[in-house]
Amino acid sequence: MNARPDPASLPIRLADYRPPAWRVERVELVFELGIDATEVAAKLLLRRDPAQDAPLRLDGENLELLAIALDGQPLPGTAYRPVEGSLEVDGVRDGSVLETRVRVHPAANTALEGLYLSGPHGTGFLLTQCEAQGFRHITYFPDRPDVQASYTVTLCADRARFPVLLAGGNPDGAGELEDGRHWARFVDPHPKPSYLFALVAGQLEKIERDYRNADGRDVQLKIWAEADAIERCHYAMDALERSMRWDEQVYGRNYDLDVFHVVATHDFNMGAMENKGLNIFNAKCLLADPDSSTDDEYRRVEAVIAHEYFHNWSGNRVTCRDWFQLSLKEGFTVFREQSFSADMNSAPLKRIEDVALLRRAQFPEDAGPLAHPVRPAEYREINNFYTATVYEKGAELVRMLAGRLGKEGFRRGTDLYFARNDGRAATIEDFLAALGEANGIDLTPYLAWYGQAGTPRLQAHGAYDAGRREYTLTLRQHTPPDQRQAHKQPLPIPVKLALFGADGRMLPLHMDGQTADGETERVVVLDRAEQRFVFRDVAERPVPSLLRGFSAPVILECDYTPTELALLLGHDPDGFNRWEAGQQLALRAYDALRDGTGPEAVAAWCDALAALFDDGNLDDALLADLLTPPGEIELAERESAVDPARIHALRQQLQQRLAARIGPAALDARYRALAARTTAALDAASQARRRLKQGVLQLLALLDPAQACGHAAAQYRDAPGMTDRLGALAVLARHDALRSAEPLAHFRTRYANDPLALDKWFALQAQLPGEAALARVQALEADPAFTLKNPNRARALLGSYASGNPTGFHRPDGAGYRLYAERLLALDALNPQIAARLATAFNGWQRLEPQRREAARAALAGLAAHDKLSRNLVEIVGNMLKS
Asked: Which SUPFAM superfamilies does its entry note (predicted)?
């Protein structure tokens, strides 16, 4: 007899979607809060779909049912039963009111999903995380995003232990109870799905500010944190106000409650959560001050604050119908966040940052066993789909649509989308329909981008006919097949382009006999496997600048010569394409070093960058990015049999050639000049100087380690902020182990009580390259501050080692893989979400050279052989072993 399959192991399919048979019109919740045990009373007003005849099933996991009643009458045990992670109830009618009372155990909840304790038992506070399916760990409920209800929440707790009580919505009363207890009630006037429910209770401090919306509503902004962190929340408050004003001006979206709460916690699986009216943040995405935060972290705080606030409309007021539509809210909101950050800072540098992340995280994901479409057709564990594909690639698809429609057209489309779907659970089709209808354009061909995995390869070839003065650009597209899809269909690919003359001037564009006065840039759309685009009246053989601003998430293959790339690097006014030309030159140089094909490509790259190094008009931050060749992860994508140690050595050799071409004297002089102007200021120019100073110091260390480490020691000693301090420590640790011992110990002592700074200390050492990293990681695990129970700390040490240290993790003897698999197993018993996310470090193991490949396979197979893995980890490991 065949065993019945575990329902949790069966895939959930988009094609099987059905509207809910039962909806909840109104929910009233009363919490009797306690650290070890909390009781939750729920009253649900239920509505039946007349077209369906299914029984009432409420999701619920790890709940102790204490009481249940229907329409005021207690139910006998025969009237309800547990069924596959849910509670089935008989006798329910349309308009019935179901009441339940359950007990949960926050302090024992190490998965940090549902209601849990952040911090020590005696001083920590309670909070919730309900996306994607955490609410079912709090009470029985149809826990799906297309069930939207109005919430009234009452919190009751001991006043001394829980002086602050918060929930989503507007405050609606508070008072005293017997025995030193108190209560607070909150009402959210906007129906919402259960994943947006939130509460916080504990000993917290706040900063606050009054804000008036563009529509005249007065809003109280309040940011909460523990007493030792509250003074590091002021930058976040400023960023929140900037975000609100920007959304009013750019999208016409106003905040819609009387109060907006933001809470910081050190125990959080994600970056932050957009719960309606009560955002909860991982502290690393909220706290910032010069002494403990780097420039990159300041920008991240601003970006994440904006992202979660923007969700108030793109995610909350308009939510997703089902979890297959996750990118509807996340991809759109990432695009909005990126646009905001570009407006607040430097648009070219922001675009470089975003594309670099896409290539580092999403392109490998799209090329490996974990590849999936932006809208997957099926999943087993939805928490495994909070991926770079859904977020970053999803944002690129929205960017393509925005580029296709233009600024005004995109605003018309989003206005219609919000107006039409306000209060609804929408789909990607709804989004495309609104954008298209508002502009009289059929955007349905772009649906193919959402349903097809893989990164398209765009091949470009140019031919110039001097006699006819015509330039013909032939574009071809091809997306490699995978196990799920043997044939990939052509996609609409918008290609923003310009043509350059030999002197670096942009040439006027004439196509099909039509010319716009002064037009030197335009977008063509490749929507077939191959197309030709003819430009007329071209006076000389041009150099094409393609995918300007990275107009589509593809891999460009163009037959550029090194001279043509050098021309674009020196003259293209598009900051991204200028950087991209440098990256392509660096890749040519890397290939030449690897294949031993001669010095020309390396010389071309070094000469071009040496010239830019002497250009006093170039932005310091852009120069820093130009001096940095593609990383080891991107270089590995070019190899059929990946040897991480060889890639690391070749990349370092490439950097040494560049450093030698610039020269030690020039590097030292530039470093000293930048160091002389060092301050802790956060303006763009000061941040750019720090960024370039670090890049110059790293290059100098490759030529003259002693001199560079001397500079680094002084920089660490005199650093006005964390950016300089951490940068100096990194150079010392990498190039002078003996000299770095004292500052590493000093850093550990100085920041002993600062968890976020200690995360940086762990991460820096875990990322030091070489096979000795394994022993270093094991030693760091013995540090009293290390724990697997805190996601940030696990990511800082183990995640940094496996994902940020290719030579250390990918040891030929497989010891790195075995250690990591053992730690994943331990972590899975505590927090399955974090274990599954960290396990993705094995992605791409099939492309390793044979010895490492077999060692990685053995480690994964050994992990998969354990019979008590969570379904989170089972899905990730199983997918990686299948391909």
From this structure: Leukotriene A4 hydrolase N-terminal domain (SSF63737), Metalloproteases ('zincins'), catalytic domain (SSF55486)
Place of tokens 């155990």: 105
AA identity, residue 279: N
Looking at the structure, do residues 41 and 182 belong to the same domain, yes or no? yes
pLDDT digit string, tens, across residues 417-462: 999 999 999 999 999 999 999 999 999 999 999 999 999 999 999 9
What is the number of residues in the chain?
883
Could you confirm whether 113 is annotated as catalytic? no
Q: Of 113, 226, 297, 308, which residue is the catalytic one?
A: 308
Structure tokens at 354: 């975003």
Q: How many CB atoms lie within 10 A of CB 447?
A: 14
**Residues in the chain where the model's pLDDT stays below 70:** 1-9, 513-518, 883
CB 506 within 8 A of CB 499: yes
3-state percent breakdown (helix, strand, coil) of the chain, nearest 5 = 45, 20, 35
Count up the domains in the chain and report the number. Answer: 4
pLDDT in tens, 531-584: 999 999 999 999 999 999 999 999 999 999 999 999 999 999 999 999 999 999
What sections of 798-870 are H helices per DSSP? 800-804, 806-809, 815-830, 832-839, 850-864
What is the rounded CA–CA span in Å between residue 186 and residue 7?
37
Are 357 and 379 part of one and the same domain? yes
Tell me, what's the pLDDT at 514?
A: 57
- List strand residue ranges (DSSP E) for 696-756, in order: none
Closest CA relative to residue 367, chosen from 629, 646, 553, 644: 553
End residue of a domain, out of 203, 235, 261: 203
pLDDT of residue 483: 82
Please give the full DSSP string across 136-156, using - where no structure is assigned: GGTS-B--STT-EEEEEEEEE
User: Domain range spanning residue 47?
Assistant: 18-203
Helix (H, G, I), strand (E, B) or coil at 544: strand
What whole-number distance in Å separates Cα of residue 652 and Cα of residue 769? 11
For residues 66 and 193, membership in a common domain is answered with yes
CB 377 within 8 A of CB 13: yes
Token pair of 60 as six digits: 């619920």
Residue 787, C-beta contacts closer than 8 angstroms, at least 6 positions apart: 793, 794
Whole-number Cα distances in Å, 461 to 269, 475, 570, 651? 46, 7, 22, 29
519: CATH:
2.60.40.1840
- Reduced to 3 states (helix: H, G, I; strand: E, B; else coil), residue 689 is helix
CA distance 360 to 85: 38
For residue 216, give every residue at least 6 positions away whose Cβ sits within 8 Å of its Cβ, in sequence order, or none.
none
Element (DSSP H or E) covering residue 102: strand 97-104
* Residue labelled with tokens 């077939």: 528
Q: Is 290 helix (H, G, I), strand (E, B) or coil?
A: coil
Residue 60: CATH number of its domain: 2.60.40.1730
Q: Do 23 and 101 lie in a common domain?
A: yes
- Rounded to whole angstroms, the Cα distance separating 265 from 118 reads 7
820 by DSSP, 3-state: which? helix
CATH, residue 426: 1.10.390.10
Q: How far apart are CA 827 and CA 843, in angstroms?
A: 18
Closest among 792, 860, 794 to 822, alpha carbons compared: 860
Residue 293 falls inside a structural domain: no
Q: Which of 552, 577, 602 is the last residue of a domain?
A: 552
